[in-house]
Every structure is written in structure tokens, then in C-alpha cells.
Amino acid sequence: MTTDGVRIFERNSMKGLVLDERIAIRFKKLDEEGLSRGHYTQQVEEFRSQRELDGIDAAHHLELGYVLNRDETEISEVRIVCPSGRGTAWWSRIDATGIQPMVFDLFPTPVPSGDGGAVVKPKDKGVVVPLRGKNDEG
Fold it and tell me: CA-to-CA distance for 25 and 39, rounded, in angstroms?
């Protein structure tokens, strides 16, 4: 079924919408981190990893989902999520005013783990030893 650039897809038990043959959206319940849960099949892995799937034919795969409150009695949030394998590339909250912009740090500063990793210290005598190649004299 196609209506003005929107069509329904059904591939095995996965269903959703394709918009302008560019964006595929499936509808899911999400956890607090915005991750969909359920049976992690090969098909789900391929969808979440942004791989091409027969019958879906869209460049981008998104999940539109809801997050329940702690007691699981009400919907606390609606989100649009860009899955990336078992993780999330980005997500944004949707409310009555529309999609709320979210800012993500693409290059987060690593946090020291405190696990006793490598420590770099200068040599005691401060002697610099030059590196020489095969063809260098000396």
C-alpha cells in the first residue's frame, strides 16, 4: 500500500512504514536507555545496523517508540531513535510541540577508568635516543 510517498512494509514479522523510499520506521516499546527489546533476530540485527533489507529499500532505519514510567502504567516519553547495532546513534524526544532537539557529543572525552593502566613518565636522566632507519649513518 502506497500513499503520497508513504508505504507499509512487512518483512517476516517486522512491520513499519517507509517514507519517500528513504526512511524506514518500525514501532517499538523502548527501555529507559531508548533501546528496543525483544527477540534479537538476524533481521533485527540487520535493521538496527542500517543494512539493506529486501522489501524495505530505505537508506535509513529508525525506531519510533514509547517509554513507560517506572510502574509501567503510563507512557512517560515518545522517542525517535536511530539504532546502531545493539546501541543507539542518536535519539530525540517527541512531545506535543514536536521533536525536541538533542545535542550529543560525537567525540566524548574518555573518562579515566582508574584500573591502573599505563602511566607515561619522562626518563630519569632525560636522555633522548634518536631513532635511525636502515640507511641512516651512525
Answer: 18
pTM of this structure: 0.69
Return the SS3 of 41: coil
From first to last of the 138 residues of the chain, give the pLDDT tens digit. 567 889 999 999 899 999 999 999 999 999 888 888 788 889 999 999 999 998 888 899 999 999 999 999 999 999 999 999 888 888 899 988 888 877 766 676 666 666 666 666 665 665 655 666 666 665
| CA distance linking residue 36 with residue 87, whole number of Å | 10
Which parts of 1-138 fold into alpha helices (H)?
42-48
Residue 19: other Cβ atoms inside 10 A: 15
Q: In what order do the strands lie in the sheet with 87-95?
A: 2-3, 6-11, 14-19, 23-30, 60-68, 75-84, 87-95, 98-99
Three-state SS for 90?
strand
C-alpha cell at 94: 517527541
Q: Measured between alpha carbons, how far is residue 69 from residues 26, 58, 82 in Å?
A: 21, 32, 22
Taking residue 26's Cβ as centre, other Cβ atoms within 10 Å add up to: 21
